[in-house]
From TrEMBL:
Residues 211-369 form the Peptidase M20 dimerisation domain. Mn(2+) 2 binds at residues 101, 135, 198. The record marks 231 as: Important for catalytic activity. Substrate binds at residues 198, 231, 333, 346, 420, 448. Gene3D superfamilies: 3.30.70.360, Zn peptidases. The active site is at residues 103, 169. This is Peptidase M20 dimerisation domain-containing protein. InterPro entries: ArgE/DapE_CS, CNDP/DUG1, Cyt/Met_Dipeptidase, Peptidase_M20, Peptidase_M20_dimer.
Length: 479
């Protein structure tokens, strides 16, 4: 059991300084650290340097690990550093590794944002709106705020803390797996457990602990034909059009009600057991929470259990966009010579990314051959990651559950999630340690979407939760 007096002092300090923490988040959101855009690579480095300065202020020793270069938009770019921070080295304390990422998704106000995505704004309900507020700058900075609060309140830090903060999570975490494997017996060797705060509550009212994630395989299918873009009035009806071929192919991947049409994809999905089916009944989740998050009533299923099963334990296929097509306002009668469709498959335990790729490639090639087109087809998997499942009964999870009760006065739900954080499986396999997902944000935060937000209450209570978790871990019996 954690020291109650220390936690009270910690909670009180956090409450008294919440405006300071919001101001710190505002600084971070103002840096457009978009890893997927070569034009913003300097900003990703800027964000890394911002964190390094905060490390220095908090007396956190660090290494900015150089992980090389990669190709993006036809350019060779330097990868942003992976920041390895260390706070404390007491052999009598547990060592906890925390992970986060300082890069974010792209954002343009013309996408439908109600305010500048790079200026954190707070509305009358306490919603802190800005790109990266919830994914993942708020949670990442939450760990550092917790360190600072202990320092300023004169409270002994309960554990040794290792930090692994990367700048390429939104672009496949290039260089991260190699670094983890390389440092498993070095920097990470004394780690007792891992905690990641890069996910969300299931709904909007109750905290949860997450012990499973779906994997992801992201594909790009390209159809090319004419040597240049053509005028549809001159050439329409005389050539095989790449866009037409692509639309037909994309339309054969999945039905409107979510059924994946690619043969073999569902072959390895585990059967639903009676025990697993029963576990869904106790989870606090209502359809109106989903409808609030999606701002519509376009849910596929009319009951909570089917919705959760579709979100967690079955694969799904989503079509994300078309590259090379005309998308600006107005009318342009162009016939694009080359177009690429992008889609992903979220996978579940027992599914193998390599097998998924084979199934996708074979299916698209067979369907393209049926078209009789003279265009050319190219299919590639841009990245593939396996699903992840941890033990929710490990002392790491038990400590986190105790922390939730201390902060929120309720027991957390134990959940899986539909999203993917590939590093969870890498940490689990490379370090042979339990990995916990401890979310700060709510299910309606809108990560990757317009008007991404983090509620002030979740941010402040989340800082308390991260600190309380470390106290509970320190007191936990590691057996």
């Amino acid at each position: 059991m954690a020291n109650t007096e220390s936690l009270k002092r910690f909670f009180s300090y956090v409450d008294q300084n919440q405006d300071h923490y919001v101001a710190r988040l505002r600084e971070a959101v103002a840096i457009p650290s978009v890893s997927a855009d070569a034009a913003h690579r300097e900003n990703v480095f800027q964000m890394g340097n911002w964190l390094i300065e905060l490390f220095k202020q908090l007396n956190i020793s660090y290494e900015a690990a150089d992980v090389g270069t990669h190709e993006l938009d036809g350019k060779t770019l330097k990868l942003p550093p992976i920041l390895l921070g260390t706070y404390g080295n007491d052999p009598n304390k547990k060592t906890i590794l925390v992970y986060g990422h300082y890069d974010v998704q792209p954002a343009l106000i013309e996408d439908g944002w109600s305010s500048d995505p790079w200026k954190l704004t707070e509305d009358s309900t306490g919603r802190l709106v800005g790109r990266g507020s919830s994914d993942d700058k708020g949670p990442l900075i939450g760990w550092l705020n917790a360190v600072e609060a202990h320092q300023k309140a004169g409270i002994e830090f309960p554990v040794n803390l290792k930090m692994c903060f990367e700048g390429m999570e939104e672009s496949g975490s290039e260089g991260l797996d190699d670094l983890i494997l390389r440092e498993a017996s070095k920097y990470f060797k004394d780690v007792d457990a891992v905690c990641i705060s890069d996910n969300y509550w299931l709904g909007i009212t109750k905290p949860c602990l997450t012990y499973g994630l779906r994997g992801v395989s992201y594909f790009k299918v390209t159809v090319s034909g004419p040597g240049r873009d053509l005028h549809s009035g001159v050439f329409g009806g005389t050539v095989y059009e790449p866009m037409t071929d692509l639309i037909v192919l994309l339309g054969k991947l999945v039905t409107p009600d979510g059924k994946i049409l690619i043969p073999g994809i569902n072959d390895d999905v585990a059967e639903l057991t009676d025990e697993e089916k029963e576990s869904y009944k106790s989870i606090d989740f209502k359809l109106h929470e989903l409808q609030s998050a999606i701002e519509s009533q376009t849910n596929l299923f009319d009951n909570e259990i089917q919705t959760l099963q579709a979100r967690w334990r079955y694969p799904s296929l989503s079509i994300h966009g078309i590259e090379g097509a005309f998308s600006a306002s107005g009318a342009k009668t162009v016939l694009p010579c080359k177009v690429s469709g992008k889609f992903s498959i979220r996978s579940v335990p027992n599914m193998d990314p390599d097998k998924i790729t084979v199934c996708v490639e074979n299916f698209l090639k067979e369907e393209f051959a049926k078209l009789g087109s003279k265009n050319k087809l190219h299919v590639e998997c841009l990245h593939g990651a396996k699903s992840w499942v941890s033990s929710p009964y490990h002392w790491n999870f038990v400590a986190a559950a105790e922390a939730v009760e201390k902060v929120f006065n309720c027991k957390p739900d134990l959940t899986r999630e539909g999203g993917s954080i590939p590093v969870t499986l890498t940490f689990q396999d490379a370090l042979n340690k339990n990995v916990l997902l401890l979310p700060m944000g709510r299910g309606d935060d809108g990560a990757h979407s317009t008007n991404e937000k983090l509620d002030r209450s979740n941010y402040i209570q989340g800082i308390k939760l991260l600190g309380a978790y470390l106290h509970e871990v320190a007191a936990a019996k590691s057996t």
